Amino acid sequence: xxxxxxxxxxxxxxxxxxxxxxxxxxxxxxxxxxxxxxxxxxxxxxxxxxxxxxxxxxxxxxxxxxxxxxxxxxxxxxxxxxxxxxxxxxxxxxxxxxxxxxxxxxxxxxxxxxxxxxxxxxxxxxxxxxxxxxxxxxxxxxxxxxxxxxxxxxxxxxxxxxxxxxxxxxxxxxxxxxxxxxxxxxxxxxxxxxxxxxxxxxxxxxxxxxxxxxxxxxxxxxx
Length: 223
Known about the structure:
The chain has about 220 residues and is an alpha/beta fold. Helices cover about 30% and strands about 30% of the residues. The chain has a 9-stranded mixed beta sheet with strand order 6-5-4-7-8-9-10-11-12, covered by helices on one side. A 3-stranded mixed beta sheet has the order 1-3-2, covered by helices on one side. Helix 2 packs across helix 3. The protein is elongated. The termini are far apart.
């Protein structure tokens, strides 16, 4: 049986019209409603706090949720470093959060500000175990702050927990002080950071109160 092109085109046109009607109905009517919120990656933040910051009410049309706007609302929370929002049909809005990783802190005007692994101050709070106090004239996000956290990040967890402060004079002058008042001059934060970290771990096992590991191949001490 031969089928005319007109009939074929008519069938295709009808199907396209049906798809368009269904698409408009799904978009315009709350067929897929937000019933569940899945919050991922939070440790310091509370899931309910994240849900509220997203600003998406329960029962909202899932397909019409502005994911960018919802993510921007969560990103305004102090601990939120990056945020993505996605839809999981038929009824779940998933909010994935990457929190700032506090590695250092500064004290200013009797307030403690946490610094993340990018050298950015992001909130005021009690520093976690292992965070190192930065001293000196340091601006948030500056090259000096970034160099400081890079040096801290090179240290092993065991060594970092023995450190009290890191004094930053400039990008070429970083000096650690341990909790038992030993001073280790790091010098610049550079490509030799890993070697300096190994030298740091070694000198902590030796006698001596002041060490210079700026050249990890030629470590010196003052006594």
